[in-house]
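Morning run. Coffee first, then this:
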Amino acid sequence: MKSGDSDRRSRRLPVNATDRRALADWRPADPATIAEAVRLKEAALVDFGMESSAIAGWIYSKCAHQIPTTAIETAAVMASGDGSCLLLFNPEFFVKLGLDGVKFVLFHEARHLIQRHLFTEPELREDPVFDIAIESTINHVALTRLRRDALPRVDGESTGIDPRDVFRRYHADLTEQGLKPFDYEDFIRTDMGCYTELSRMKDPPAPPPLCVHELLQELQDELADPETIERIGNEVLANVLLAGKRGVRAAREELLDLIDRTDGATDRLSKLWGDLGAGIIRGQTQRTRRVDWWQRWLVDVLASKLAEGERLIYPKKRGAVLAALGEDPTLSRRGREHKRVVAIAVDASGSMPDPVLDWISSLVGQLDGVEAHWLSFDGVVAPFEPGQSLVGGGGTSFQVVADYLEGRTPADRDGEVFDETLDAVIMVTDGFAPHITPAEPDKWIWLITEHGDDWPEHHTPQMACHKVRTGDR
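And here it is:
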């Protein structure tokens, strides 16, 4: 049984929700309070990046505008219609919370944005019982991950919905009906499980009169633009997935917990996790759809090749000058990289279907800090953009790709020489051409079409190689 209409009220913000200057200028707090609130916010975000939450850290890295404003009573993450993501926070509220309280609130807000991305079904979003379930599960995860015993309090009042209080009401309600309630751990284990159990109540709890996430029914489109949420949500989850595969334990554990809490709740969610290749993080196959092993394998291998750290590189221009002066070539140590460079070379004479190329393009495009270079090749190399048709000129040579990417020959179409230091090369081909040994074979990843020649797997030195079934995807 679900509750009737809630008494939540709507009110407009005193200024336009997308006018950043007006938000900052609305009755500003005193400079010392703003400075302290910003310091607390920055300290909390550093902690997310270092330990507490990879998901929250990635979300706030995408909030290009983080605005202290008294136009909002607490804090909120807004995905606005112009494609931007904003963090609004009341500086007086943050100062009263202190550092641990600010971390809790920011974690809570980040998870709400992800929940909006994961649960888009109107019948769920409009049900106040679902609101209570999501508030309860998010706060339970926040208490657990941030190692807190209780919700933050401001002026003696709790800042949110305590999942344990909700459970006590649920337990008493079902007991009074003569029904058997779950224990707390089973009650709070998944979002949909919590929602289902609360729906069994004769008198389910309703959200408070004004929830920070429902500031305005009239501004819902501005506060939760679905296209922006989908883009940011996919980018965040893809980056956390790769961090987990790179060996970042905290990212892996947090993502596993999120998958376990949501996977299978709806058909859309099962497909979403499958499309992201999230099954590789826990070594399981999505049961509701087929996600090919080559996709999981590619995410895994690409993650290892894009791992952070210092690298030795050969500076081509400086090397040429040294050679002209008769000096021996040297390697330079490049510091920690913020940009990763990936080349995707597609055999124009091969038989790789467009959906496979679309999936690779989507994977690479979701990764922050990755610069992709797309090449078409047969007997020559020509840069192209995904979606353009591949026109072959006859013959196939892998050596022309190596010569181009290693800076020895220019591209056929524009005459430009490739002058980037690569982190990975993805070769998409049927494998039928003279074999090669690139200068850095450990960076090369070969995707071989069905019935193609997987010689790189048996080559010396061996290179990463996997067959792609062209009937899939």
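The two ends are 41 Å apart (CA to CA). Good start to the day.
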